[in-house]
Amino acid sequence: MSRHLAAGSLAGGVLAACLMVRSLVQVTIALGQQIPVIPGLFSLWHVRNPGAAFGLFAAAPAGFRIPFLIGVAILALVVVTGMYLRQGHESRSLRFGLATLAGGAAANLLERVLTGEVVDYLDLYVGRYHWPTFNLADIAINVGVGLLLLDAWRGRRSPV
Question: Which of 14, 103, 107, 120 is catalytic?
């Protein structure tokens, strides 16, 4: 399998998995419902996030927030694609990192274009201290960034 086909398949697979899990959450967990999985540590909690990571821009007017966040996501995908075209042949961790990041970013972008917000459902907490609720696309984005940092740490190049 060619490198490009593998990277494209990974990005498409991440996108598809994110959209399938989101759909599953929407049809099986009522909006606002929280289902403890590991009491005191992890639950599934169906919430809508109109903002970005950690709820940034959630309170901004929708007329600004939605186009701004869509524009940022499109810009991120353009940068990721440019990095792939320029350096994607150099290492597996870079290719997989960019593909994973692209799949997650595309999933959140598509959801935001269609609904103006994203569905979050993974809730980590200890007692009353909660990490902001997130989704599979957010995990993919962070794994992708981690792989880019690993690639840079190995001394190949700067991640940007």
Answer: 120
Catalytic residue among 98, 138, 144, 148: 138
Taking CA atoms, 152 is separated from 22, 34, 82, 155, in Å, by 32, 39, 17, 5
138 belongs to the catalytic site: yes
CA distance linking residue 4 with residue 13, whole number of Å:
14
Judge whether 158 lies within some domain: no
Range of the domain at 92: 3-153
Q: Domain total for the chain?
A: 1
Q: What is the pLDDT along the chain (160 residues), one digit of tens a residue?
A: 688 899 999 999 999 999 999 999 999 999 999 999 999 999 999 999 999 987 889 899 999 999 999 999 999 999 999 999 988 677 888 999 999 999 999 999 999 999 999 999 999 999 889 899 999 999 999 999 999 999 888 875 555 5
Could you confirm whether 120 is annotated as catalytic? yes
